[in-house]
Every structure is written in structure tokens, then in C-alpha cells.
Amino acid sequence: MFIQPTTLIEALEAKRQFGSAAAFLAGGTDLVVLINHGRMPARVFIDLSHIEGLSQIQCFAADQCADDPLTRDFDAAKVFVCGPTTTFAQLARLPVRALAEAARSVGGPQIRNRGTIAGNLATASPAGDGSTALLALDGRVEVQNLYGSRVIALREFFLDYRKTALAPDEMIVRVAFPATWLTGWRKLGKRGAMNISTVCCAVGISDSRRVHIAFGSVGPYPLRAEQTANYLTEALRGDPAAFGDPAVQKHAVELAQAEVRPIDDFRASADYRRAMSGTLLQKVMRQLAEELTPTTSAIV
Ligand SMILES: Cc1cc2nc3c(=O)[nH]c(=O)nc-3n(C[C@H](O)[C@H](O)[C@H](O)COP(=O)(O)OP(=O)(O)OC[C@H]3O[C@@H](n4cnc5c(N)ncnc54)[C@H](O)[C@@H]3O)c2cc1C
After folding, report:
1. Domain containing 110: what range?
2. Percent of the chain topping pLDDT 70
């Protein structure tokens, strides 16, 4: 069955009625692949494309965020809030480097024009590029059912391989992430385009210099590297030039390699993925080091 609601309430009502037998259809870039492979359990599709306003992006200053549980206490001067059907093509234009570069690295132009941020999160692929970047931004989602809404921090959203904290009647209705953090991104894959990652790494540094790190394709779902992030937060608070220090980089690489949980598969061995996790983190650190300690420009 194919349902085309024109309001959010109609979409949520359909999901309440059919539960796990129904799937929201956003860009269809994951769903259609599953259908083609005969691996889609849902028999009801709720198309989100006729509901207005679901792909809006808004930016709020911190003082506008205090009353909204989705946006409050973000440790950022500004916060972006995206609708669920915001596409990768839209995200690629945002001034948040990790997310924009992750979005630019997804598939080809057609996939980026159709694939959405909520679809990437709900699919919960270990290789989800948008999901990995948003984890390093300590992003949050607002999920809603017919009876109300709740906010889930993305660090608590991914539960297991393609399993999330979403209940069968809930829909992701908003995604929030900081607009002012310093961020970096690296992705390693077999080709330059249409490329699922072998490993990807995102780093976010909050306005108060707390470090957040996430890896994709090295675990059952996109992973945060908490110990590595804690170590780098301390190092950075002690010395703004810490990211450029080879000894700090070396220790961070060792910690990250111990935190990732890769497996062998047809794309790469676990050992290679573990090694590359460290390499990508080091590359991001080197890039961020320059921005954390900019060289003083000559006074004219
Ligand atoms: C050729 C190709 C290349 C690709 N390359 C990449 C890549 O490089 N990197 C990458 O990360 N991904 C890649 N993908 C995967 C895909 O494009 C993304 O995961 C995309 O973000 C999914 O979004 P969608 O809107 O198409 O989701 P859909 O296919 O419409 O839905 C996916 C899942 O999310 C659920 N869903 C959708 N919206 C919501 C919502 N608002 N609330 C709750 N559940 C929802 C659906 O019910 C479904 O279970 C590729 C796919 C293809 C076909």
C-alpha cells in the first residue's frame, strides 16, 4: 500500500495504524535498494514528499535556543535545525565543514539530491556518512508520534546493527547540530565517487573546546570515540597547539585504534580499518591544528 499524506499528523496516524509494517519513504535511496533485493519487510509506504516544510533549514542564536529541548545547551553560539527531508545537496552547502564534506562525499549527484538526513540516520548503516558527521557534532533528533515528541541525543540513538532508539510509531521530525564548532572530516573508500566508506572519521570541537570524535564503518553502527575525545579535550585545554604536537597525535591514534570495533568484510580487513582509523584521525588533527593556532598575520 502507498500512502501520500499531506500533513505530519496524517503521516503519524498512518504509522500508528500500521506500526512496523509501514515505512516512511523519504528519498527512497535505501528503501528502494531493499525492495529490489527483496529485503524490505514493510508492506505500507508512507511518502513524505507531499508534506510541506520538511526540508527547511533554520539557524538560531544561542539566546533563541533556551526554551527548546532540541536546541538548548549546545555549547555553541548558533545552532542549525533541519527538517527530516533535508537532502545531502542542501547539507553540502552549509558552513559546517564535517557535515558539508560528508554530504558532498555521498553517492553521486542524483543520490545527493534525493537522499535525506533522517533517512541516513534511520537506516543506521555503520557507513552512514551524515550519521557519522552528526555524531561528532553531538547532534540531536526530535522524534514524534501522535501523542507527543521527545529529543534523543545521537550518541544514544544507534543501538546495534541497523537498530535505533526509534519506536515503531515515531518519526524523526527535526535534526539539530551546532553551527559554530570547528570541525573536520576524512573518508577513505575505494573510488572517488559513488563511494561507501571503508573508514570515515569526523571531529567536532565545541565553542568551549570540548572535542567530539566519531568513526564510520568500524563497528556495527557509527561510533563515538569517547576516550580519545576526552584525552584530546584535556590536551587542548592545556595547550591550544596540542593538535599539532606529534606526541599528542600518536597517543590519540593509539587510543582511537583501541576504541574502534571493525570487522573483516569484502571491503577491507579489520586490521586495515583499525590502522586507517588512526591515519584519518591524524589527518583531521593536522588540519584542525592550523585553525586552532592560526599564524599571526602581518599588521599592515
Ligand atoms: C548508489 C548509492 C550510493 C550511496 N552512497 C552513500 C554514501 O556514500 N554514504 C552514505 O552515507 N549513504 C550512501 N547511500 C545511502 C543513502 O543514500 C542514504 O542512507 C540516505 O541518506 C537515505 O535517505 P533516504 O531519504 O533516501 O531514505 P529512504 O530510503 O527513503 O529511507 C531509509 C530508511 O529511513 C526511514 N526514514 C526515512 N525518513 C524517516 C523519518 N523522517 N523518520 C523515521 N524514519 C525515516 C525509512 O522508513 C527507511 O527505513 C547510497 C545509496 C545509493 C543507492
Report:
1. 57-178
2. 97
The reply to whether ligand 1 has any atom less than 6 angstroms from the CB of 115 is yes
116 lines ligand 1 (CB under 6 A): yes
Identify whether 294 is part of a domain: no
107 lines ligand 1 (CB under 6 A): yes
Are 196 and 267 in contact by the 8 Å Cβ rule? The answer is yes
Q: Are residues 106 and 30 in the same domain?
A: no
123 lines ligand 1 (CB under 6 A): yes
Answering whether pTM is above 0.85, one says yes
**Burial class of residue 37, CB neighbours in 10 A (0-12, 13-18, 19+):** exposed
Are the C-beta atoms of 259 and 227 separated by less than 8 Å? Answer: yes
31 lines ligand 1 (CB under 6 A): yes
Q: Say whether both 43 and 155 belong to one domain.
A: no
Residue 299 covered by a domain: no
Ordered strands of the 197-205 beta sheet: 182-189, 197-205, 211-216, 223-224
Q: Classify residue 127: in a domain, yes or no.
A: yes
Other Cβ atoms closer than 10 A to 91: 30
pLDDT at residue 300 in the model: 46
C-alpha 117 – ligand 1 centre gap (Å): 8
Number of domains composing the chain: 3
Pocket-testing residue among 24, 30, 47, 49, ligand 1, by greatest number of atoms within 8 A of Cβ: 30
Q: How far is the CA of 53 from the centre of ligand 1 (A)?
A: 19
